Structure formats: structure tokens, C-alpha cells
Amino acid sequence: xxxxxxxxxxxxxxxxxxxxxxxxxxxxxxxxxxxxxxxxxxxxxxxxxxxxxxxxxxxxxxxxxxxxxxxxxxxxxxxxxxxxxxxxxxxxxxxxxxxxxxxxxxxxxxxxxxxxxxxxxxxxxxxxxxxxxxxxxxxxxxxxxxxxxxxxxxxxxxxxxxxxxxxxxxxxxxxxxxxxxxxxxxxxxxxxxxxxxxxxxxxxxxxxxxxxxxxxxxxxxxxxxxxxxxxxxxxxxxxxxxxxxxxxxxxxxxxxxxxxxxxxxxxxxxxxxxxxxxxxxxxxxxxxxxxxxxxxxxxxxxxxxxxxxxxxxxxxxxxxxxxxxxxxxxxxxxxxxxxxxxxxxxxxxxxxxxxxxxxxxxxxxxxxxxxxxxxxxxxxxxxxxxxxxxxxxxxxxxxxxxxxxxxxxxxxxxxxxxxxxxxxxxxxxxxxxxxxxxxxxxxxxxxxxxxxx
Length: 453
Ligand code: PHE
What we know:
The protein contains 18 helices and no strands.
């Protein structure tokens, strides 16, 4: 609908975009999901594959999405409509908006656990002999508590999005992201200086490829998409708030680097401590909620570090959840002409309701499980969003630029403005051939392995 170019908000500075986009990328994916995926998939071998996915697929796709957003100055659905009018390509944008719904609906559940643990960790640390697994289980199997915390988290998210791009997203990213870095560094220093930390470092840094299978590749691919916020239009949306002279290749390179750095840092904060205090790394989604409180309980000043850790987790989650809500909000503003506040509030409410089954999956709905994937409701939302929808979104966005809209236009758009880094032939080659082939190949291989073993 309407030409929103005239009154569209734009980031006030380069740092505004970089920190907001890094805020989106750095989240539960880095601090909660990356460590347990690494722990479940064999440590450093998984990390090597993950890094390949980030550089071969992640960076080119982030440039691609950002370019589509900047050139069109529209939300993900509108961007495809503007660049390929009258074609069904807008469905790729619609898939993104839909995926945003699924992710945010379970994201707030885990973010709610993180908020609750800011005080639960105190109980965990102060009660000698407490069973940490039982504490976590009783938290997630309680009916009301997880729902209330998810609601609180959603209200914070809505509040920031309702305030707008500059006064909401940019403002809070500029405040929260530096806090996050400082907390992370404190935690790493604590972890690697514990006696016995080196065993964890070895596990984390020494690759063992004997356990690698098609599933490992799919897991790394899914992790890269999720962690970099790719494949669902976050970068189309955030890119649409860039001005013509803003540099895309270097800003997105910053975002990819920061995200990767924080994921690796999370591993340095977690694995040395886990091994030093005699725990196992393969605890799955419960790693940071069960294993870490146990670790904090045995650590000098553990309560302090425990509180700090869960504040870190909640902050990281918040700067990501706002980007998920912003995609859907931007779509309603640009395509349906809704006012921002109404769009944010109503969509937030709907996503909260969609998320209820994920929150209730451990109590009233605990009978519901998905035997093929061997998981509960939350894991199932996670699996479909990250292993299926995000890679598909990235795949189609690459095909769109590579074969429909044209890589020449994309390259020109990306290199606009004063650039210290520009993209060209290599990027074209990656977007047209490597990205689609790798995504398709890994998805097929991973699905085959997942369903046959
Ligand atoms: N990147 C976020 C994280 O790592 C999650 C996310 C995925 C956010 C997709 C937006 C879009 O936690």
C-alpha cells in the first residue's frame, strides 16, 4: 500500500543500525541455544561447521536481505511487492512474517524463564543440597509462573516497539548492548580462571569429527540462521530504516562478527565452569537453567555471578524479541496502514496467545509430544522455525536476488555510499550458486538423517 518513503523513520547513526541489528542477532540463540547445541553435537567439530555456515551463508544472506529492505524502504512483504510487482514473490515475505510469529511465541517463554531465574538463582545458590534439575522442572511445570513471566517480557517488548524505531529500538539497543558486553566479559574471566577450567577449554576447542552426521550440518545451519536473525525479514525490515548513503557491506560485517563473537564468548563463559565443577556439557535446553545454577552454587561469589548471568540472558533476549515484533509491526504499518502502537500491541497479544501451548507444554500439555522429533511443544516450534522455515526463507531470498531481481542491481545498491568494503563477483557467486545449493543439500541430508534414525 501507500508510499511510506516520505515519513519513514531512519536510524540516526551508523552505530544505531549496527547495535540494533546486533541486538537482534545476539540473543537466546547465542547464550542459551549455541552452548547446548555445541554440547549436544560434539563440541568444537560443531563449531567449525557453524563458522563455515556463518561465513559462506550468513554474511552473504545478511547483505542480501539488508539490500532488499533499503532499496524498497518497505517491510518484508512490501519489499517483494515493490521489486517484483504482480508476482507471487511477496509470499517469501509472508513466510517471514509467519515465522516471526512462531519464533516470538516460544522465544518469550524461554526469555520468561531467564527473567524468573534472576531471582530463582538466588534460591538455587543459597540452598545447600538442592536438586537443580528439580528446581527447573518445578518452575517450567508450574502453570502460572512461566505464563506470567512470558507476559511481562512481552509487555516490555511491546513497549519498546510502540515507542518507534529511533526512540524505541535504537535507544534501548544503545543502552543495553554495552551492558551485555561488560557482563559477558566479567563472566568469562570468572569461568576461565576457575581451577580445572582447562578441561572445558579442550572440549570446546578440540574438534572431534567422528560424531558428525547430516543432522550435525542441519543443526549448524539452523543455528546460523537463528543466531543471525536471517531468513525471516528482520534485515529487510531493519535495512528499510537505512538511508541511501549508509554503508551496507561494512555494517553487516560488524553485525556478523559481533554475533559470532558473543556466541563463542558464551561458550568460554560456560564450558570451562561446567567442566571445572564436574558437570556434563550435554544437558540440552536445560544446560543454562540446570547445570549453570549448580555451577554458581559451588563458585565463590556464585550468587553475584548467577544474577549477572540471568540479567545478561534477559537483556540479550529483549533486544532480539523487539526485532521479531518489529517485522510483524512494520508489515501492518506499511501494508495495512495501521498505527504503530495498535499494531505492536495487538500482534504482541496474539503472539503471546500462540505461545501459550509452548509455555504449557511442560504442565497441562505435557502429554503432547512429537515422537519423530522426540521433543516437546517448544522444541517442535523451535525445530520447524529454525530447521525448516528460516533456511527456506533465506533460500528463496537468494533465488529472488540471484535470478529474478538481479545481482547487478543488488551489488549497486549495496555499494552505494562511501564504502570501505564493497561486494562484487564473489558475493554474486555465493548468492546464485553456493547459498542455494548448500541450503538445499544440507536440508535434504539433515531431514533424511532426522527421519531415518
Ligand atoms: N537471533 C536471535 C537470537 O539469537 C533470535 C532471532 C531469530 C531474532 C530470528 C530474530 C529473528 O536469539
